[in-house]
């Protein structure tokens, strides 16, 4: 696992957007897995800026969703489908046909989950999966004690996650209890995992993810199993790590040609 400590969220967004631009240059139709929440927004802004400046051609990029609420009416502004269309697909000038996600309003949720895993594999697999992290260490919506080999499925949110996400809704009561999320086993199939964490509220979860044992109680620790996982943290999110000197020295000594 590579740990990159950046000065702030904007620097993290720029670094990761550059890695995505590099990927799209090598593979113009790369399948990019995107995360929601506030943390990845600087990545999407930096990538859209590179695309408008003509620094990267994103026109053939394909976008896929990590997770979704269950039971929100189709088109609800806080459904993750709406969020990804608004924050990623439209700013990049892509059409909805370049985007795929699980159907959180399906009658048969179990079938929708299995369909989504099949669709990801049918699309050739995810080339780069962006991840945020919950304050309880979740990735996607894989809450603590999720199986480390889980597939896309329905999950129940912890109260902590519902409270954390209530800021996107008018009240806590409106935050759904159930969600669909790519499983940890599904996420681990992406070719490159890039987790961005910013702010002190994430410091404990980051320390457990990076320096704690591999444990289902900290779902993000599953990144330790992946051969190409990058964790980008700002100073505040890095504040509870013990090996920061080593991580800084390693990144500073990295050959210029080697991207994250
Ligand atoms: C939600 C999403 C996660 C995201 C997390 C953290 O739970 N399902 O993918 O990582 O929120 O969000 P934020 O970046 O806003 O802290």
Written overview of the protein:
The chain has one domain (2-252): Rossmann fold. It is of the alpha/beta class. Helix 7 links the parallel strand 9 (192-197) and strand 10. Helix content is 32%, strand content 16%. Strands 1-10-9-6-2-3-5 form a seven-stranded parallel beta sheet, sandwiched between helices. It has a three-stranded antiparallel beta sheet with strand order 4-8-7. The structure holds 2-amino-2-deoxy-6-O-phosphono-alpha-D-glucopyranose (GLP).
Keywords:
alpha/beta, 260 residues, three-stranded antiparallel beta sheet, single chain, Rossmann fold, binds 2-amino-2-deoxy-6-O-phosphono-alpha-D-glucopyranose, seven-stranded parallel beta sheet
User: How confident is the prediction overall: mean pLDDT?
Assistant: 97
Number of domains: 1
**Number of helical segments with 4 or more residues:** 8
Question: Order of strands side by side in the largest beta sheet?
Answer: 1-10-9-6-2-3-5
CATH-level-2 architecture? 3-Layer(aba) Sandwich
CATH level-1 class: Alpha Beta
Strand/helix succession: EHEHEEHEHEEHEHEHEH
Find the structural class using helix and strand composition.
Answer: alpha/beta
Bound molecules: 2-amino-2-deoxy-6-O-phosphono-alpha-D-glucopyranose
